[in-house]
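Below is the data:
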Amino acid sequence: MRKSIFGTVLVHFTFLALFSTGAFAQANSSVYTDLDLDNDCSIIQADDFGATFACPGYRGYPVMVAEGDLRMFVSYGLDSLNERAAEQTLSPFNTIGETLEWRLSDRARGLTPIATILRYFAEDGMGGKQQYLIVTKIEQGATCQVARINASEYPNANQIAQNVADTMAQDFDCANEPIEWAE
């Protein structure tokens, strides 16, 4: 069962008001990198059911992209295949976008990636697609999806995703907290 951060109308509007205004956002910044599986990534494993790619991210930060059963999985770091993010994806068949947003914090040792935001395109079961922004926490040994924002439903989904990355990602407990949903 998935958890929805919009369980009631009051929570829904409070969340949108706080996060879309940036009321709790830190002074983090964004950089963008391409995620071009065909030209920038190396296949590290392949079989009849899919493939796993190693891709360069922000300043060479490792990005792992896997495709299996018509679904995409994305993880980060030197041990990305063993991170929780490597097992997380949307239920419907999906693909990923080609631009990866890195949220950077300058709290310690220069600009450090704390989260990413990546657009997924998921089948909607009626012949169309829904777009989701997936916020993923980046921390060695604790890399996981934090939130999924339905970008087809929220015109300010990018701002919501940035604010979720800035306010929730660093303290998110990958082992015990469920992924937040904005549908």
Q: What stands out?
A: The helical segments are 9-21, 157-168.
